Amino acid sequence: MTPSPTPGAIVTGGNRGIGAGIVARLVADGYDVVFSHLGQQDLADEVVASCPSGKVTAVDIDFRSPTAAAELVERAWQVLDRVDALVCNAGRGYSERIQDLEVADIDSVYAINFRGPLLMAKEVANRWISQGQSGAIVNIGSVRGLRPDPVDAIYGGLKAGLHRATQSLALEFSQYGIRVNAVSPGTIEVFDRPDVYRRLAVDIPLGRTGTPADIAAAVAFLLSNQASYITGVTLPVDGGMPLPITYGGEDIGQGNRWGQIQATRRTPEFQREPGGYQGAPRV
User: Which residues are catalytic?
Assistant: First the structure.
């Protein structure tokens, strides 16, 4: 009996942080992976070396080029036995006042964060459709695309656009059995700054910042058959960070610290403990 081909996945921006976590999870789940990076061969080599159980290939691609998506997809089809999944994670962070925006920066963030995922979806879906194959796509959005923040019109605005585009792609591709979803990360530990993340965790209801493995788990679920009836959704993975919460008429959020405000209309008092809250009143 001829063995079944190993499932394959393309991950953009897989050389560090969230992307590296996604590559590691997919390899652990039995995928061969082709991932992109931008001029960071040393980091890409580390990711490849950390995944000895699967076929993992790194490709240096610049999504500011309009041909980048086609080049990466062609390379993936050459290397992998088959392609079953696409994860669009490559992105460029950016925060700037409108008064100080530079056209070159706007164009760069747009090309990487928005045009890139759309062109990747186009290239991969066209091949799946021509082959009569179904598949799954996950775009990596951001909590900054779900709520407005100052100096965030470009990055947050484009992530909001990506969430919306995910819905349109889901509608367009549903007739071919291609599912399209997004994951919206909150504050994720992608730098070696534990002091910063401890401070940020204070304002997160679940009491901690996230890890690349948290995002990878959500991506793996959305790519799996367990999510076969899910398409067009944006799944927040943020520890409840954006939730507007009030207790006893007092706002708990920016400027306050969780567990230091008494629930004046309910008992018992919330007690802040590592990883969550104990004694939360049931209503």
Answer: 155
